[in-house]
Amino acid sequence: MSIIANEYSVAVTSRIVEKRIGQIVFSNPSRRHALSADLLGALEERLAELAAQHVPVLLLGSGVDQEVWSAGHDLGELAHDRDPIAYGKPLERVLRAVRSYPGVVIAMVSGSVWGGAVDLAMSCDLVVADRSARFAMTPANIGLPYTTSGLLRFFRNLPIHVLKEMFFCAMPLSAERAAHFGVINCLAESSELEATALELARGIADKAPLAIRAVKEQLRILEDFQPLPVQAMEQIAELRRQACASADFSEGLEAFSARRQPLFRGM
Residue 225 — pLDDT band, cuts 50, 70, 90? Predict the structure, then answer.
């Protein structure tokens, strides 16, 4: 089955690989598999349909042996949306759909992963990647402040100084370092990526699906149980509001569009 979100470039396809294992492949080749609103909407729909079919294990990715797994947000859409990662926006809805999917979602990663796409991979239950995989958080390049919920996902998975390195420097985390810190569960050669992911999926598919579903939901609830004082939430919201409304954010978007180095002024 498939959904074509844009007849010229964007597609989200799904299939049943074998008994109890499904696969979703997203594609946006003209934009380096960027997570456009159309693509995210189609992805959310496919996740819901496979959940309704009670498929207990899913492989998720954009293909194998390619330069870019996903370039993250389609920055061309940011001219009309100053905060594309806020609650209720397409990316956040998909991240919640992945994390609440009633089964195991395995990210199958080949190539570099940028911005919001890193969050997508880390929202999956398991990550299988080849040695070309690199993970770069680039919001600071355009002046976009990341969300508290997104930072918490990284906070739980990475040492604090590595997390700061990723967000402050926007430098890619190599596949080897990602595996070292536990971000990647299985590291494989490109020629073995699909076989490795499928072997992992089969091991899960053989288990009791209701038991795994219950454990996944318990872990999700425990991870989400992060009470913060109202004052702290208000402070965070105000800092994000200022950054999203800043001239720096506009400069970052203009510089990206013009393919030049941005000149940030802290305003």
Answer: confident
| CB proximity list for 191: less than 8 A, separation 6 or greater | none
Is 146 catalytic? The answer is: yes
pLDDT at residue 233, rounded to an integer = 65
Superfamily of domain 2-189: 2-enoyl-CoA Hydratase; Chain A, domain 1 (3.90.226.10)
For this structure, is 116 an active site residue?
yes
The strand pairing partners of 14, in sequence order, are: 24
pLDDT at residue 42 in the model? 96
SS3 content of the chain, % helix, strand, coil (to 5): 50, 20, 30
* Catalytic choice (101, 143, 146, 150): 146
Out of 103, 116, 150, 252, the active site residue is 116
Reduce the DSSP state of residue 187 to 3 states and report it: strand
181, 158 contact by CB (below 8 A): yes
Q: What percent of the chain has pLDDT above 70?
A: 90
Extents of the domains making up the chain: 2-189, 228-258
Mean pLDDT confidence for 28-42: 93
